[in-house]
Design goal:
binds acetoacetyl-coenzyme A, 266 residues, four-stranded mixed sheet, six-stranded mixed sheet, alpha/beta
Length: 266
């Protein structure tokens, strides 16, 4: 991977999008790197949670690459959108939990990448009121629609009316407003953002990994369907946990009034 740095810390992985000259904008190469990241993380059974962030203090991801998009034809635009959408859908459906640590601009494709993650944490402005995360879908200001799932995920994450306002106006919002509308889970000073994201990932990674993955699948798959079918999805996944060694250890430890052994992902 040329533009994505990957670091493993115990059972968590931290991926940093690293194309600082273009504020980490997503060109085809970065999208292909993100696809490779999904391959690597999926193949490594030892990774229980993934944090995604952007390099530098200014940007998480400043959007899809405008230079690359500027000369696209209708067919080329559709293909570029499909490339991004396919990668982001793979990120969204990674079996393990994902956390976006949004350190700066998350515009267009950047906001869309954050929304493909399970949890979004954001940096607030510094003491002078400068910097920090800024979210937005500025596409209509460039003559296009959001192209990597923004119309769909934003409308599902916040209210449809709020999503429409953000998308139609192309205006950016700061971390505190993103928190207020439910787009982000928490806001930290920039220097505390990565420690907080890693601590959250480590906290998740200490729980039984198969059960955590089953929860993610139950929530994601259940949200795609009606309540009757969603409950059945949960029942099946709930049942499957009783075949795991971690369930036996977790419940055994409770009944024997002892701390459970570290979970084995089995
Ligand atoms: N694509 C390509 N290059 C980008 C970029 C992008 N999305 N965003 C920033 N850059 C580049 C700039 O061109 C500039 O490069 P040069 O130094 O070679 O000129 C460099 O990054 C630094 O950017 P600025 O000088 O503009 O930095 P700034 O601090 O003045 O402004 C900013 C920061 C407000 C984020 C501004 O860069 C900006 O508005 N960027 C574009 C944001 C945007 O519109 N994103 C949406 C893209 S469309 C999309 O994402 C479609 C989709 O859904 C798939």
């Amino acid at each position: 991977m040329t533009h994505v740095l990957l670091e493993k810390k115990e059972h968590i992985a931290v991926a940093t999008i690293n194309r600082p000259k273009a504020l980490n904008a997503l060109n085809s190469e970065v999208l292909s790197d993100l696809n490779e990241l999904v391959d690597i993380v999926t193949a490594d059974q030892d990774i229980y949670a993934l944090v995604i962030t952007g390099s530098g203090e200014k940007a998480f991801v400043a959007g899809a690459d405008i230079g690359e998009m500027s000369t696209l034809t209708k067919e080329g635009g559709e293909a570029f959108g499909k490339h991004g959408n396919d990668v982001f859908r793979r990120i969204e459906t990674l079996p393990i939990p994902t956390i976006a640590a949004v350190n700066g601009f998350a515009l267009g494709g950047g906001c869309e990448l954050a929304m493909a993650c399970d949890i979004i944490l954001a940096a607030g402005p510094n003491a002078e009121g400068k910097g920090g995360a800024k979210f937005g879908q500025p596409e209509v200001g460039l003559g296009i629609t959001p192209g990597f799932g923004g119309t769909q995920r934003l409308a599902r994450l916040v209210s449809p009316g709020m999503a429409k306002q953000l998308i139609y106006t192309a205006k950016n919002i700061k971390a505190d407003e993103a928190l207020r509308i439910g787009l982000v889970n928490a806001v930290y000073p920039l220097e505390e953002l990565m420690p907080a994201a890693e601590k959250l990932a480590q906290t998740i990674a200490k729980n039984a990994p198969i059960a955590v993955r089953a929860c993610k699948k139950a929530i994601n798959d259940g949200l795609q369907t009606d309540m009757d079918q969603a409950i059945v999805i949960e029942e099946k996944l709930f049942g499957s946990c009783f075949e795991t060694a971690d369930q036996k250890e977790g419940m055994g430890a409770f009944l024997e009034k002892r701390k459970h052994e570290p979970y084995q992902n089995k």
